[in-house]
Amino acid sequence: MPSLDLTADVVTLTQQLCDIESVSHDEAAIADAIEAALTPLRHLEVIRRGNTVIARTHLGREERVVLAGHIDTVPLTSEPANLPVRREQVGGVEVLWGRGTVDMKGGVAVQLKAALLEEPSRDITFLFYEAEEVDAIHNGLQLLAESDPDLLAADFAVLLEPTNAAVEGGCKGTMRVEVRLKGIAAHSARPWNGHNAIHDAHEVLAALAAHEEATVHVDGLDYHEALQAVGITGGIAGNVIPDSCTVLINYRFAPDKDAEAALAYVQTVLPGRELHVRDLAEGARPGLDLPAAQAFVAALGVPVGPKEGWTDVARFSTLGIPAVNFGPGDPNLAHHDEERCPVEQIVTAEQAVLRWLA
Ligand SMILES: N[C@@H](CCC[C@H](NC(=O)CCC(=O)O)C(=O)O)C(=O)O
Questions:
Q1: Complex ipTM, two decimals?
Q2: Whose CA is nearest to atom 3 of ligand 1?
Q3: Domains of the chain with CATH codes
Q4: Residue 311 Cα, ligand 1 centroid: separation in angstroms?
Q5: Protein residue with least CA distance to atom 9, ligand 1
Q6: In this structure, are residues 153 and 64 in contact, taking their beta carbons and an 8 Å threshold?
Q7: pTM for the predicted model, two decimal places
Q8: Which residue ranges does the record assign to the Peptidase M20 dimerisation domain (predicted)?
Q9: Is 132 a residue of the active site?
């Protein structure tokens, strides 16, 4: 069983975490390693639900904060192979290079180092959760909110998602919709007997390609919307006119919109098309005017910006718990084949979190 050494420095710990492969739905090994590393720490209560590990202090402090991070990653690449991670120089900067270094095992390493604090200034709930990178129904925090909502209770939450060690407020919503096109199957030597559903997709794709994506100003931050085709399927054989074709579309919408408004917007881009919602997670407004968030930003003294990806800040906002994103790694390199994180940034993030909790 792979193991983690919590006494190692935060960069080495990040490397250890990354080298335990944990693509979504395959997090058992990393959850086992985290649970095994935390269980001997006598100041923590450690709980396991599926492949989500929860650890809490019970020091009777006035405030409880959550430090949360997901332990899954998007799939690996083979060319270039992005596991095992490498520590190397890129453009004169020392980086950890490989899957998970940005999204988000550097943040998880910072959580684990903070878990060693025996006398933090606040009570802390650490959440290491499964299946964040996939459809919302699998999300470990979603499952925890259903099974043990009390485990999410807190006055403030920090999601250790990549932010370049700045604070990123709120997050955009994400919706996946399918447009299902119908045709008539026939022999491809005699296409006049059928109707090609894949050919019909060009109208949908042309509308998406022509669409101008908006920038929306919400409570002082600019969120860049995105409406993109992310998949297309159809065809059963190389000599059959396809009778169906499905275009999968991902809409990333600013947090001034709820799900209904987001769907209505997609409909304006694709008038008359029947839209089938496959997955949906609403966003969260920045909430940086809330006292808890202001105190965090002031304590860290870092710049603020918008979170363009979706994160579980949205879940905490829904629960009425102020939450922000703060962690090492450039979000522009999340999910990228060249995913890499400057080692210095992982150390900076660790120091900032430890200072805040001291
Ligand atoms: N259920 C959603 C979950 C997607 C989560 C993912 N989040 C990030 O990559 C955060 C890092 C960042 O971009 O800043 C995402 O936004 O894709 C889904 O499946 O879409």
A1: 0.96
A2: 133
A3: 10-171+284-357 (3.40.630.10), 173-281 (3.30.70.360)
A4: 6
A5: 309
A6: yes
A7: 0.94
A8: 172-270
A9: yes
